[in-house]
Amino acid sequence: MKQTFPEWIRPMAATLTQERFTAPEWIFERKFDGIRLLAYKNGPDVQLFSRNRLPQNLPSVVHAIQSLPENDLILDGEVTWGGGKVTYHVFDVMWLNSRDLTSLPLHARQQLLSELPLSAPLERVVSLDGVEEELPWERARNEGWEGVIAKRRDSLYEQRRSPHWLKMKCELSQNFVVGGFTDPQGKRVGLGALLVGYYDATDFVFAGKIGTGFDTKLLLDLRAQLDKLEISKTPFTKAVGLPRLRAHWVTPKIVVEVGFIEWTVHGKLRHPRLLRVRNDKPPREVVKE
User: pLDDT under 70 in the chain at which residues?
Assistant: First the structure.
């Protein structure tokens, strides 16, 4: 039975994660630094939209899609500009020849996408094969990408922000000194979050809370070390946003390496996670990089 060509399919959005993993049920793709672009072809008519359904004027992309032999289709991807040319990086197909594909698993949609005769400025996004020595996010960092997208192979095309698509943005990393910690809540053990900072010319500056990147053993080991360093007053001499409840203060002796996306306008770490404890770094040498 022929289905009615849809006026709009809300684009599936990825959920930001601080996790780093590989698994057979997941594929990884480059995250491009462009704008989301949805392409609708219904007979000779081609329309391009942003993720917010704003019309986009890209004649070369329209012409390439009009040239495809398929009568009707809907593509999802990212458009970038570089070297004076436009490229439409296509990573999904949600509709093809009067058929709604959103209920098919990703691997089936990608197979159908691979059979489309795309030509410049259209390019099919290829998955990172995972057999290289570099992990996907390491390759992203080394090659200057914005990040990577992890997608479950069996994911349906959901018209929402989904946990079955995850975006891993490239991280900055820096050393910080622990000046305190918070108590664990719920089923968490050891500690809730580390309160970290760095030294400038005159102050020990509070930079934020680190609550992810720990396993149970590390949580317990760090709590045992921090209990021995506990003091009655905060060591931070320049601090905005320190927690008022369930906070403990310690002598600044433990150095940790932290991954984070960026500095906020208020001088705090955005989406930080613990990478490792640095026993080789003197605390007083830890400054903002």
Answer: 1-2, 130-133
| DSSP class of 95 | E
- Residues 110 and 124: their CA atoms lie apart, in Å, by 10
CATH tag for 172-285 (out of 2.40.50.140, 3.40.50.2300, 1.20.140.160, 3.10.129.10): 2.40.50.140
Please tell me the distance from the alpha carbon of residue 249 to that of residue 226, in angstroms, as a whole number: 9
Longest dimension (CA), the chain: 74
Round to whole Å and give the CA distance between 82 and 92.
Answer: 22
Q: pLDDT (tens digit, 9 = 90+) per residue, 71-93?
A: 999 999 999 998 889 999 999 99
By the 8 A CB rule, do 48 and 175 touch? no
Taking the C-alpha atoms of residue 277 and residue 254, their distance in angstroms, rounded to an integer, is: 8
Dihedral (CA of 132, 134, 140, 142) sign = negative
Residue that the structure tokens 């900072």 belong to:
197
User: Could you tell me the pTM of the whole model?
Assistant: 0.71
Q: Please spell the DSSP secondary structure of 97-153, one letter per residue.
A: SS-B-TTS-HHHHHHHHHTS---TTEEEPPPB-S-SSS-HHHHHHHTT-SEEEEEET
**Kindly report the CA angle at 143 between 139 and 145, in degrees rounded to 5?**
90
